[in-house]
Amino acid sequence: xxxxxxxQQQGKPKKTAIRFTREADFPQWYQxxxxxxxxAENSGVRGCMVIKPWGFGIxxxxxxxxxxxxxxxxxxxxxxxxxxxxxxxxxEAAHVEGFAxxxxxxxxxxxxxxxxxxxxxxxxxxxxxxxxxxxxxxxESFAKWIRSxxxxxxxxxxxxxxxxxxxxxxxxxxxxxxxxxxGHTAHATEQEARDETATMLEEYRALAEDWLxxxxxxxxxxxxxxxxxxxxxxxxxxxxxxxxxLQAGTSHYLGQNFAHAADIKFQDKDGGESYCHTTSWGVSxxxxxxxxMTHGDDDGLRVPPTIAPHQVVILPIARDEDAAxxxxxxxxxxxxxxxxxxxxxxxxxVHVDKRDMxxxxxxxxxxxxxxxxxxxxxxxxxxxxxxxxxxxxxxxxKTSQKVEAFVPTITEQLxxxxxxLFDEATAYRDARIKTDIADFDAFKTYFENEDVHTxxxxxxxxxxxxxxxxxxxxxxVTIRCLxxxxxxxxxxxxxxxxxxxxxxxxxxxx
RNA sequence: CGGGGGGUGGCGCAGUCUGGUAGCGCAUCUGGUUUGGGACCAGAGGGUCGCAGGUUCGAAUCCUGUCCCCCCGACCA
Length: 510
Hints:
CATH architecture of the largest domain: 2-Layer Sandwich
Strand content: 25-35%
CATH topology of the largest domain: BirA Bifunctional Protein, domain 2
Helix content: 25-40%
Number of strands: 27
CATH superfamily of the largest domain: Bira Bifunctional Protein, Domain 2
Largest sheet: 11 strands, mixed
Structural class: alpha+beta
Radius of gyration: 26 Å
CATH class of the largest domain: Alpha Beta
Number of domains: 3
Number of helices: 15
């Protein structure tokens, strides 16, 4: 048995690679993972973060895959302005109301020097809102673009930053400015728009589960949780390791609400005039927060191989010049060999870490960053024709593998890590979905007494009334969604005891 | 936005109550010894204490304002 604390001869012994454990303090642990993995940091601007290469690389890999799927499902990328005229966003009543509190507003367009300082001057006649989302702006364009049924459907997407002046920012989960994609489509018929909404939610489910290894529950939002202005909002809900829910992506059927507001209409075959049915859907950098809180452990981040900026990190071990002369070229050579293989549709991403620092420290830095496979290559390995392999899923089990066995199986090893992460997360989540809560007393007892060991979701029948939902408020519990897979038989509402036909997921949420 | 806690070399902190011009550990740099699970010894560099103003002979310490961070709550992707 090796002792991972061996190097800690002085000072406080460390049991884990990072300072906080999930159990002791989940919020602190979350921040510590981000810091130790060198993913992002706060900036001097409230609620706005600097995304560092390891965090941004993860985002880019997620983005690359999703962008591909967005194109494959018939959409095209566009770009719309960051600023929205105030009078434009006022057009859809429910929409404004929903976003009013969190909109940043530009009121001036110029600065003048005064007493050595710069002061805003040139007040705008009409203020501009920094987009919190682009339904209104894109709706304006749709109205111009669409004349005839032959122009439909219009299916576009944009990768952009948006601003929502949130009260309580948290890195990746809720930043004032965040990166996302927003898809916007306009259709001739309700059915087509509803199908689009469902198609994109399924894309999000696949992105979360197949790509990020995050198990999610797809379903429909209750009325109170709907996107402002939407007829229906569909969501994928994930469970974090503290048992809280995180909405990881949404797809909205907007009906004709925005079409009426922006006058998006077309002439049909009969010459009649109709309003379009529109949709919108988005996922954001919040997904990275979901990944951290799904896969991270007390030694830091664990990145699914699909999106890891480096899937394999090679650590050349050289104690002197002579060893370096042998080991460094060998490490490069190994990297080149690995690059002949493809995993998840891309050439295996290999990095040789040649930084001049202690090997143990170097190794821990990659463990904290969550690189899926760490390969140590030293003179001894060279003599034996082998490599020392650590998988991030089992950091205390180093195995020596022959190079000719290791290299050709790299794809398989990465895939197995991917599956292991998904299976582990799924087992964790499923064990924390309670389905045996009989009545509201038991429900309250559960949510009042939950802690980091027991917290989770309750799945139970719900009568779908706003009043019953209101009574959850004091508990801090919300209805996350009505899952698509529903039992055939009706039951009774866990809150009111009234007859109910559908089950809902109840949870505390981010 | 309400309640609570904070901002002191890169990181983590002490010092603040009882003003006297900054200290510890880690990290960094140099030299040496080391090196396959977060090395050791010696030496060195680095901060004016979030920012602005005030009180004072003198402010990290007191007062006012302000910005930012963390936790809980309400709000939200």
